Amino acid sequence: MTLSEELTWRGFINQTTFSDITDLDSEPRTFYHGFDASADSQTIGNLAAMMLDKAFIRHGHKAILLAGGATSLIGDPGGKDKERPLQSEETVRSNVSAAEEQIKRVFSDDAFTLVNNLDWTKDLSVLDFLRDIGKHFGMSTLVQRDYIQQRIGEGGVGMSFTEFSYTLLQGYDFLHLFNEYNCTLQLAGSDQWGNSLSGVDLIRKVAGNETHVLTLPLIINKATGKKFGKSEDGAVWLDENKTSAYKFYQFWLNADDEGVADYLKVYTLIQPEEFDALMAEFTLNPHQRAAQKYLAFEVTKLVHGDARAQSVKNVSEVLFGQKAFSELSKEDLAELAKEIPVVEVATVVEALVASEIAASNSEANRFLQSGAVSINGEKVLQNTELSTLESFNGHQLLKRGKNNVALVKN
Length: 410
Fold this sequence. Notes:
The structure is a single chain. By secondary structure, this protein is an alpha/beta fold. The protein has 3 domains: 3-219, HUPs (Rossmann fold), CATH 3.40.50.620; 245-332, Tyrosyl-Transfer RNA Synthetase, CATH 1.10.240; 342-409, Roll (Structural Genomics Hypothetical 15.5 Kd Protein In mrcA-pckA Intergenic Region, Chain A), CATH 3.10.290.10. It has 19 helices and 12 strands. The protein has a 5-stranded parallel beta sheet with strand order 3-2-1-4-5, sandwiched between helices. Helix 2 links the parallel strand 1 (30-35) and strand 2 (62-67). Helix 13 (260-267) packs parallel to helix 15.
C-alpha cells in the first residue's frame, strides 16, 4: 500500500489541506506532531496519534515529535467549555519528561527528532511576540473559530487572553520548525484543526511558502460514546503506575465487538490480508474473541514490551481458566501479585478471610461446603492446612467462583 492508501484504509484522515491526498506518495516530507503535557502520562488517545506518526515514518517521511513544554503552560482551550487551571512550571517540566520517555518507548524502533517548544519560546519577549507573530493574525478570523465562538458567544463562559493566545503559539511552533527543519506538514487530532491552520497561515504570510495539515479523527469508545482522552472518566494511561500492564491488556481484551475492527486498524500494524482473515474468524466464532485477543496482545506489546505482554496474557488466561496455574513463571506470578490480594496464612479458611473473599470464618466454611472454593484449579470442600496442598513457585491460587481470586504465599 502507498501511504495515502494506508491512511485511508486505517481511517486516519479526518481533515486535510491537501486537495489530493496522493501528494503524500510522491516525495518524503518532514512533519511534526505535538503532544500535550497537561498530565503526567499520555493516554491511548495520544497513542492513536503516535500510530498515525508511525505510518508516515514507515513510508519514509521524517518525524519531529514535539513535547509541549511551552504550550502546556498556557493550556489548550480547544474542546473545553471552561478554562483549565494553570499548572506550575515544575509540574509541566515533570509532565514533559514523562511524555518524552513514553514517546521514546513507543518509537523505539523508529527514527525521529524529539523537541520541546519551550526551547524556542522561553526567551521570546512580549514585544517580539506581538510585533513578529501577533501582527499576522486577524481578529475576525480568530474569533470565528468554533471553539472560540462557543466560549465567547451567547451562553459561553468567556475566554482569557492567555487561552486566546494559544493558537498563536502553536502557529509559531510550525513556523520555527519550518525554518529550522524545513517542516512542511503538521499532523494533529481533529480538535487541533483550527490551531494547526494558524501555522499554515503564518508560514504563508512570513515566508511565502505553502504548508499542510492532516488531522486524525478522535478515537471514540463505541461502547461508551466517549473519546479516549485524558479528561475522560476511566482514562487508559500509558504509564503503568496509572494503568497497570494487566489492566491495560484487559481493557483491550474487553473491547466491544462493534469497535474492535476499527481499533485493530488504528492501534496495530495489522495488514489488510491478515485483518480480513482475523475478522472472518471473529465473525464465525465471536465468543472466542480472536480479534480482541490479537488487539490486546499487540497494543500491550507496543506500550509495555513483548515480555510484559506475554506475562499479562498468561496471567489473564490463568484467571479465566484457560491455562493452568502451574504454567505461570516467577515473572508471571510477580505480575499477578500486583493485581490480586496476596496472603500468607496456614489454612484455607484463614486465606479466604485474610483476602476478604469471605467476611468471616463461618462464611468461609459455607463457601467450602458448597464446593465454591478451589486451590490451583482443584475444588477444596473443607478447611485444610495449605501446607498439605501443592504449591508452584511458592504460591497457590485461591478462587471462589470466577471473579474472587487471591494468591497464597507459602
